[in-house]
Design a protein that fits this description.
Elements (H helix, E strand, L loop, with lengths): L1 H11 L4 H11 L18 E2 L4 E6 L20 H6 L1 H16 L1 H21 L3 E6 L8 H13 L4 E6 L8 H5 L4 E5 L1 E2 L2 E2 L1 E2 L1 H11 L2 E2 L1 H5 L5 E2 L4 H4 L3 E4 L2
Parallel strand pairs: 1-10, 2-3, 3-4, 4-5, 8-11, 9-11
Antiparallel strand pairs: 6-7
Length: 240
Amino acid sequence: MKNMLKREVKFYERKDQQQQAIIKEWAITDNDNIQLNRCSTENSKLKPSKRNRLLIFSLLPVTSCPNCSDCKDKCYALPSIKMYKNTRIKWAQNWHLAKFEPALLEDLINFQIHNELKLAEKRNKGLIFRIHESGDFFSSEYVELWMRIIKEHPTVKFYGYSKSWGYVEGLEELAELNNMNLINSYIDEHLNFGDQDHINHLVNNHEAFKCKGSASGDGIKCVKECMYCVTGQKPAFIAH
């Protein structure tokens, strides 16, 4: 697994034309049948609840992350795109749209949110939107895209994590939106992800909240059983 991750990291951290050509090929593999829905509705750790429906948007890992030098070698998203072709294609399409057709991507995300809100209202539920299961905010223009989307849907609760503070302009303004909880992935300059000792240090010395799912190992699902990250600011995750 470690050797596989090293190979994946080397590919995704490249920024040359050959890498971009390969990603573009992935993105247009199913271009004739590109799905309107650019977001997923759950994954193995994120599940909708009795009170809330769920949407999750992702980009390619590492490639879309301006500040990943201290986490790329243990990136949890890399095995997913190695093992699951459909995941790789969808995230590559999202990355291609975000880079080269952002207006279309914005329309597609808004379209899916509108449809999910209709379903949520029929069932008297809310809608929670996780930005970036994989990936990060890579440019100020991309941040502005999300600011427009979030403002368009004031009843939706958006949340996400970022290591791009200080690398990409606009994150401070994004974090100030009433229906957006943007979490800095560094807690007082310490990465919020690591082994048990590291997380205990964050909890004991920096007022971090130990993620119940990663801490217990008993399959607790985010959103469905724990809503801390939707409103909280210092989650810490045990590597697993």
